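Re: [ENG-882] Designed sequences occasionally contain unexpected residues at chain ends

Forwarding the minimal case from QA. Structure tokens:
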């Protein structure tokens, strides 16, 4: 079988060699002819449906490249010449490529002058943003003189390319059978040159091997934010030595390290956040460390449009979103509470019923007084009927009709009195609570919700979102916000005041349960989950177009498609719960020392019962004061009236 494949390959190469066009004997034509000879079978065999870029560092060679179309079976070819000044490059970086060529690209670069123009190659062909080719996915063939091979592969520009092959032009034998590539970590985590026999390779993976699947113990520099403990929490072991204490990233990195055989050194991100873009164009946080080449990998960094030109992101490990946290609804104490048991229309109905029953008994009393033979007057008055509403006893009339109506009215008064008292007791013991805002639109609605608000000091993507948003509500929040403060202070202010702390949902919830939870384990805060903004995936971040991204991204996708991410999240929550139980045991131990027991004799934190105070009784006190004032005014009016009448009588006599 092997001999058959070898014979088949020799026949194919012979056919290709006979199809070579006849070039003139000029030096550039000869260089071009010999340079492309080993590349032709590679392109025709493995990149038939790919767009071909031919890049040169010598304009004279470009004059002869026009004849190369027959060599590549009429493939779509773009010709570029590296220029010292990219702005003078007449070739655009954006090409109208047919759909069948969108899946891949092959870039053949002729470097007659070695590494001299590699900086132009990076800025024009493989820049970090808006590049015409993708250095972590596309395939690159570099053709140059044999003496430049080591310098090319050791250059910074080519080390950023994943699939690359150097085809040397030899001085004695132009037709080289062997290419050279660079294995990133094959030498115990360091780089190593690998020779590849182009003529004996039957698969594309043999010519362009993927060396990022095994790190051979290579140490990666990992940058971690310190302001988002809900996803990752660091612990310092020694000076300049850190480890991940807990969080969903801990099992993720352990599995990745084991699968890809790499190690990592952890360091806190500059500034502690995920990434803040400053007005001068610089970055801090995880983004700053990646952009300035201080780290190879970052965690706790969400995708955003402003970050896209400077970093690459893996698939989501979990989703996060922004919201605001407010304290539990505050109890409302008002003198109006004595009117709250009944609605306004019910108060009017009671008043109309009282007036109507008074009128009916007035008519009955007149009739009974006229028909009475004993001379006794009718005992019921308007005051008696009114006092029945508060439970006072009344004299009973002798007339059967009056007695029947009185029984009906007493029964109605009993129901009204019972309902009012029971409802009032509930309002006094459990006062009505204020309505909390549930959306950002309600939060900025000052007439109905008198709340102040502010962002926590983590900045990063949250600050950038509020700053760059075109939503009028979000813009108003950003303009009227209070100065940022640490998240623990922000949440404490939300608990005590009418204040909304805007933060990442998971981070605020974690801080609240860890530092602000009640003795029963409940949180004193409420999240406005009805209005979620900036719902983004949270994954791993890399330097732009990193060669590590494709394999790690694919592996993460497989892990979380299988449900492993949900399991890790639950494991992390269970660890938090265990820490909380341990904390509660410490609280119980402290309570035992203080001698606090509950009704069962168990030691616990002392809990006071619900007792009424003057705040609950504003209404009765106000009514008492109003009644005294009214009585005093009535007394003074009556005194003045009778004094006036007495003086008037004395004058008349």
């Amino acid at each position: 079988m092997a001999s058959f494949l070898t014979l088949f390959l020799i026949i194919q190469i012979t056919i290709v060699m006979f199809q070579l066009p006849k070039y003139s004997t000029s030096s550039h034509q000869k260089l071009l002819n010999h340079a492309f000879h080993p590349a032709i079978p590679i392109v025709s065999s493995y990149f038939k449906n790919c767009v071909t870029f031919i890049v040169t560092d010598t304009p004279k060679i470009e004059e002869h490249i026009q004849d190369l179309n027959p060599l590549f079976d009429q493939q779509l070819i773009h010709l570029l010449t590296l220029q010292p000044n990219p702005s003078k490059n007449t070739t655009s970086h954006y090409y109208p490529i047919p759909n069948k060529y969108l899946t891949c690209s092959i870039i053949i670069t002729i470097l007659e002058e070695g590494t001299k123009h590699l900086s132009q190659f990076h800025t024009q062909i493989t820049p970090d943003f808006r590049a015409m080719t993708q250095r972590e996915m596309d395939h690159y063939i570099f053709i140059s003189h044999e003496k430049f091979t080591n310098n090319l592969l050791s250059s910074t520009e080519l080390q950023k390319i994943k699939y690359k092959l150097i085809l040397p032009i030899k001085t004695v034998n132009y037709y080289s059978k062997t290419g050279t590539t660079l294995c990133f970590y094959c030498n115990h985590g360091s780089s190593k040159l690998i020779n590849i026999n182009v003529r004996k390779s039957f698969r594309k993976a043999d010519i362009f091997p993927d060396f990022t699947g095994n790190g051979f113990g290579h140490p990666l520099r990992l940058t971690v934010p310190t302001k988002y403990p809900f996803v990752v929490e660091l612990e310092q072991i020694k000076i300049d030595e850190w480890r991940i204490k807990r969080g969903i990233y801990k099992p993720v990195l352990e599995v990745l390290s084991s699968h890809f055989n790499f190690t990592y050194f952890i360091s806190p991100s500059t500034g502690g956040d995920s990434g803040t873009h400053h007005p001068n164009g610089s970055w801090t946080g995880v983004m700053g460390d990646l952009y300035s080449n201080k780290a190879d990998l970052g965690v706790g960094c969400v995708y955003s449009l402003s970050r896209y030109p400077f970093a690459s992101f893996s698939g989501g490990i979990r989703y996060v979103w922004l919201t605001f946290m407010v304290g539990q609804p505050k109890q409302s104490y008002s003198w109006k509470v004595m009117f709250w048991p009944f609605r306004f229309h019910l108060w009017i109905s009671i008043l109309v019923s009282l007036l109507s029953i008074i009128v009916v008994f007035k008519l009955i009393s007149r009739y009974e007084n006229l028909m009475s033979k004993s001379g006794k007057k009718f005992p019921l008055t308007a005051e008696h009927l009114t006092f029945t509403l508060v439970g006072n006893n009344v004299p009973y009339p002798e007339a059967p009709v009056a007695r029947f109506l009185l029984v009906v009215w007493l029964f109605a008064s009993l129901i009204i009195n019972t309902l009012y008292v029971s409802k009032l007791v509930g309002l006094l013991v459990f006062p009505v609570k204020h309505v909390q805002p549930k959306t950002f639109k309600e939060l900025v609605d000052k007439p109905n919700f008198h709340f102040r608000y502010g962002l926590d000091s983590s900045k990063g993507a949250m600050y950038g979102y509020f700053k760059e948003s075109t939503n009028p509500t979000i813009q108003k929040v950003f303009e009227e916000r209070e100065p940022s403060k640490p998240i623990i202070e922000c949440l404490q202010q939300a608990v005590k005041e009418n204040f909304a702390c805007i933060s990442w949902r998971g981070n605020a919830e974690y801080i609240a349960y860890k530092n602000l939870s009640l003795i029963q384990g409940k949180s004193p805060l409420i999240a406005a989950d009805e209005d979620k903004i900036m719902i983004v995936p949270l994954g791993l971040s890399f330097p732009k177009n990193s060669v590590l991204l494709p394999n790690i991204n694919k592996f993460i996708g497989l892990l979380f498609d299988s449900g492993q991410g949900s399991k890790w999240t639950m494991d992390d929550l269970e660890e938090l719960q265990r820490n909380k139980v341990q904390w509660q045991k410490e609280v119980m131990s402290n309570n035992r020392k203080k001698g606090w027991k509950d009704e069962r004799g168990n030691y616990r934190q002392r809990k006071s019962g619900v007792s009424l105070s003057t705040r609950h009784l504003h209404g009765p006190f106000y009514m008492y004061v109003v009644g005294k004032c009214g009585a005093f005014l009535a007394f003074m009016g009556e005194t003045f009236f009778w004094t006036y009448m007495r003086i008037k009588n004395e004058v008349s006599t």
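QA comment: On inspection the terminal residues look reasonable. Residues 4-25, 88-95, 597-608 have pLDDT under 50 and may be disordered. Proposing we downgrade this to a documentation issue.
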